[in-house]
TrEMBL record:
Transmembrane regions: none
Source organism: Candidatus Thiomargarita nelsonii
Biological processes per GO annotation: S-adenosylmethionine cycle
Molecular function via GO: adenosylhomocysteinase activity
Name of the featured protein: Adenosylhomocysteinase
Record Pfam families: AdoHcyase
Length: 84
């Protein structure tokens, strides 16, 4: 008996209402202007990828501020998994 990879055709995430995506992107853009520290980190270190090979998991209420944090971690090279 050989080990076969498990193929899951369903996504491992759930979007409550995809119709709100455009609004959410606008809210995230507003939050980015209110979080200059994270934006500065992205600007200074994105090319260096200091979090490359880092695997970060989190469980926190999903807010636009949380989204900015997650996007910053990804921009710095981390592999991020999140639940809320």
């Amino acid at each position: 008996m050989s080990a076969q990879p498990i193929i899951n055709l369903r996504p491992d995430y759930k979007v409550a209402d995809i119709n709100l995506a455009e609004w959410g992107h606008k809210e995230i853009a507003i939050a980015e202007t209110e979080m200059p520290g994270l934006m500065q980190l992205r600007q200074e270190y994105a090319n260096e990828q200091p979090l490359k090979d880092a695997r970060i998991a989190g469980c926190l209420h999903m807010t636009v501020q949380t989204a900015v944090l997650i996007e910053t971690l990804v921009a710095l090279g981390a592999e991020v998994r999140w639940s809320s």
